[in-house]
Amino acid sequence: MLPISFIESMQGVKGFQKEAFLAAHVHDIPVTSIRFNPFKKKLLKQLPLAHQLDEKVPWTSDAWYLKERPSFTFDPFLHGGAYYVQEASSMFIEQILQQAIPQPEQEIVLDISAAPGGKTTLLSGYFKNGLVVANEVIKSRAAILTENVIKWGADNIIVTNNDPVHFHRLPAFFDVVLLDAPCSGSGLFRKDAGAIAGWSLENVHTCSLRQQRIIRDTMSVLKHDGLFIYSTCSYSTAEDEAILDWMVQEYAFEPLRIQLQPNWGIVEVRTTQQEAWGYRFFPDQVKGEGFFVAAFRKKSAGIQPVFRLENNLTQPPGKELALLSEHIQLPENYRVFMQENEFRAIQNHYWQPLQQLAQQLYIKKAGIELGSLKGKDFVPSHELALSLLPLTQMNNVEVDLETALHYLRKQVPAIQGAKGWCTISYCGLRLGWIKVLPNRINNYYPAEWRILKD
Questions:
Q1: Which of 444, 311, 292 is nearest to 378 (CA)?
Q2: How deeply is 142 buried, as exposed, middle or buried, from its count of CB atoms within 10 A (0-12, 13-18, 19+)?
Q3: Which of 140, 209, 274, 291 is the most buried (most CB within 10 A)?
Q4: Could you tell me the strand order of the sheet in which 342-347 lies?
Q5: Dihedral of alpha carbons 183, 184, 186, 190, sign
Q6: Domains observed in the chain
Q7: Are 354 and 313 a contacting pair, CB within 8 Å?
């Protein structure tokens, strides 16, 4: 049963059809959708979930509805980052990007409230030559975000763990800002009973104030003519249309109208005060959950940032770099730096932005963690195995499904491999490391990530 006060608050909202909306929450089963990893898909010997693919999500490039929800836990492709399970409505972000920035280059993008990582990985795939800063203020959620970014494998994502207000130290730094704002969560009613129990008009008001605070704290970071995308999983106009009006009134924003296809079922709205465009997703009209999104161009002149060029990221000594090169050969366009005694690598054109970010923010993850040196021995990181970096100097063992699942449970796989460090691969997708010793094999899959279900 949905809250009566919620139903009453929706009367008069464009597109709201009470009986159909209620029926969708009683009778309809929420759909499941996945988005393929464009970096890893080309490496695969087999298409993940091929027998489960139903139809494409129409507003994004390579995402699919599934015929039914499988047991993702037992799919090595998920653990290796071949795809991301993401709600279809929220993938509309890509359609906005296609229309607003049809030819992406080396944009610097901020996902200000990024966990668990669905939109971050979407941004990473769209801005393949750009840099995505994925921020999450809550420490536990930042850990989940980091795990999903590691599985994605791309090195164009920097994870930060900061309050949004800290970003004011980076004026006019970003070309794109995405705020998927914390909200009252009415768009999740079909999937989360807790969202129904926790919904109230008071919480809607509290969330709207929080949303304004985050926007106010991050407004200065966007460049002139930069793109700002605002989204919620709420149907409430106080968190949607009212926020759009407030943004246009308070700041020099130009609302963007996004072209829709009639068969998508998305409801286009225009606010009464500032005539800003917004897009609402009702589950009785689209194949997806509740969602609201709007896009703007910033038209005020930003303050040009002035950064010190001092290097506060540790550089490894030449002797250690020489030892490292004996174990792993990086492409020429990469450079190595240190973070907490771990070697990390990042592409050269991301280096200066990373330095500037590191001077102002807490960096939880940047580039790809390569591993560490124990004397003259190199201990590779799990992150390296899941990355896109070529590991031609390392041995690899291709395994079948049963063996892959044994490995992901952190059991000792029954395989034959050359002595030393080896990557384990399933259908061309690297899953992690083993070390083959004379009398045994050690499984180095992270204990906290292992499959616990039988």
A1: 444
A2: buried
A3: 291
A4: 334-339, 342-347, 368-374, 377-380
A5: positive
A6: 307-393 (3.10.450.720), 394-454 (3.10.450.720)
A7: yes
* Cα dist from 195 to 185, 192, 347, 437, whole Å: 6, 5, 41, 51
- The Cα 63–Cα 329 span in angstroms is 34
- Cα gap 2→25, rounded to integer Å: 9
Query: Which pTM was predicted?
Result: 0.96
Residues in the chain with pLDDT < 50? Answer: 309-310
Give dist(CA 453, CA 273) in Å, integer: 53
Q: Which residues of 105-130 are buried (b: 16+ CB within 10 A; e: fewer)?
A: eebbbbbbbbbbbbbbbbbbbbbeeb
β-pair partners for 339: 342
What is the CB neighbour count within 10 angstroms for residue 395?
A: 14
Neighbours of 11 (CB within 10 A): 8
Cα 105–chain centre separation = 19
In three state form, how does the secondary structure of 261-329 look?
A: CHHHCCEEEECCCCCCEEEEECCCCCCCCCEEEEEEEECCCCCCCCCCCCCCCECCCHHHHHHHHCCCC
| pLDDT tens, residue by residue, 338-377 | 988 889 999 999 999 999 999 999 999 999 999 999 888 8
Q: In terms of DSSP bridges, do strands 83-85 and 63-66 run parallel, antiparallel, or are they unpaired? A: unpaired
Report d(CA 419, CA 413) in Å as an integer: 15
CA angle 226, 231, 236 (to 5 degrees): 140
One-letter amino acid at 1 equals M
Rounded CA-CA distance 444/301 in Å is 51
The span from the CA of 289 to the CA of 266, in Å, is 11
Token pair of 116, please? Answer: 């668990």
Q: What pLDDT digit, counting tens, does each position of 8-28 carry?
A: 999 999 999 999 999 999 988
